[in-house]
Amino acid sequence: MFKKSLLLGVTGGIAAYKAAELARLLTLDNFDVQTVMTKSACHFIGPITFQSLTGNPVYSDLWETNATNNMAHISFSRNVDAILLAPASADFIAKLANGMADDLLATICLARDCPLIIAPAMNRQMWENSATQRNLSLLRHDGVIIVGPASGEQACGEIGMGRMVETCELVRAVRATLQTGSLQGKNVLVTAGPTFEAIDAVRGITNSSSGKMGYAIAQAAMEAGANVSLVSGPTCLSPPAVGRFIRVVSAMDMLNAVQAEIAQTDIFISVAAVADYRVAKINQQKLKKSDRNLSLELIPNPDILMIVSNLPKPPFCVGFAAETDELERNAEAKRHKKNLPLLVANWAQDAIGSDESELILLDDAGKHLLPKATKIEQARRLINHISSLYKLK
Fold first, then answer.
1. Which of 16, 13, 100 is nearest to 58 (CA)?
2. Please, what is the average pLDDT of the chain?
3. Fewer beta carbons below 10 Å: N end or C end of the chain?
């Protein structure tokens, strides 16, 4: 039976109300949850709520904890398997990044010897502020796992990045952090979704990729214990609670994002449907409609997977091929051209937008058929196959 102890840290912010549902879900998921709140958090939601949901007392004062030898910051951090801060305010993120310990929760985090997971939640401008991004960069460098935030409508009425991710995603992130899986500790980079190549101020070239398979693979890799970064083109999906989520638009954006991450990547899974061409010259204004034909000069986009697989020391590379004819022949040719240890092939007409798919895995040992199943189930099967090949490389 999966039974772990978790310290849930709640900081000040309107998203604190979501932490109550998070505490309930974690408790139902067989976690023993100990809640520590900042003084600011207590202005948004009462400690008795968390005590009722978890069955454990709630602490917020560094000096009145009744801990053995009055050293709660030591005992709390030693008696849990992980610490989850949700929501993590901009102010508290700044404290963590600079090693401050001026309250109970900050002191526990500084004294910890267990994984620290944080779920940022703040106004979009606070999130985008360069100081916040510097602080987050420091935390990532220190090994802190950052989940989210999500984009959407905020309590202030504005729309943008800064919403705390959904509570179910945080539960999955905690479980992925604590389990020992087939990819435990490996750094996995996944690309997903389409790209959008602008023609003018309002039009562009794209494709019908939904991003569902790439997002499912990112989720499955997390479940296998990997540290996952997801680079995504424009989709309508809510991202899984990966360690790093990077939104991009064009193929060049995606290439730049991949190159920024690839040095620390063990496994690169290129699922994104990258546009093969882009317009040579983007019109900055909307092109006006006329009765005459319109000609556009298209130039090739870089082949991101080819660039990565031809690095002097490439990661383990996995490619995807969605074909409309001669599936196995075209996919195998692509695998050899790009020197890939594994390529995943499927019929484009069956896969795009669907919640199910049938996959063919092509590697040096031959062909492996994955019969039709949901995309998350296929993703888990694929991750298991990747893991077995990676261990043999």
1. 16
2. 86
3. N
**Which residue is it, tokens 């590697």?**
363
pLDDT in tens, 251-291: 999 999 999 999 999 999 999 999 999 998 888 888 888 88
Domain match, 381 and 248 both: yes
Confidence at 327, pLDDT banded by 50, 70, 90: confident
Do residue 297 and residue 206 come from a single domain? yes
Residue 40 confidence (pLDDT) above 60: yes
The distance in angstroms from the start CA to the end CA of the chain is 33
* 135 and 201 within one domain: no
Among 27-31, 32-36, 214-218, name the one with the lowest average pLDDT: 27-31
Q: Which of 178, 210, 226 is the last residue of a domain?
A: 178
H helices of 310-369, in order, are 327-337, 348-351
Structure tokens at 177: 């952090």
> Looking at beta carbons, which pairs linking 281-285 to residues 24 or more positions away fall under 8 Å?
282/198, 282/199, 282/200, 283/199, 283/200, 283/201, 284/200, 284/201, 285/200, 285/201
Of 122, 157, 178, the residue at which a domain comes to its end is 178
DSSP string, 372-392: EEEHHHHHHHHHHHHHHHHHH
Residues annotated as catalytic (active site), given as ranges: 156
- Token pair, residue 223, equals 């479940």
Cβ burial of 72 (10 Å; 0-12, 13-18, 19+) is: buried
In terms of domains, do 27 and 167 share one?
yes
Structure tokens at 367: 């062909």
Q: Are residues 108 and 206 in the same domain?
A: no
Residues sharing a CB contact under 8 Å with residue 38, sequence separation 6 or more, in sequence order = 9, 10, 11, 12, 60, 92, 103, 105
**C-beta of residue 23 within 8 angstroms of C-beta of residue 53:** yes
pLDDT, tens only, 98-122: 888 888 898 888 888 888 889 898 8
Residue 227 forms beta bridges with which residues?
A: 187
Q: Is the per-residue pLDDT at 145 higher than 80?
A: yes
**Cβ neighbour number for residue 134 with a 10 Å cutoff:** 12
Report in angstroms the alpha-carbon separations of 81 from 56, 78, 175, 176: 16, 8, 11, 12
Same domain, 125 and 200: no
Distance in angstroms (rounded) separating the CA atoms of residues 58 and 8: 10
Total number of domains constituting the chain:
2
pTM, entire model? 0.61
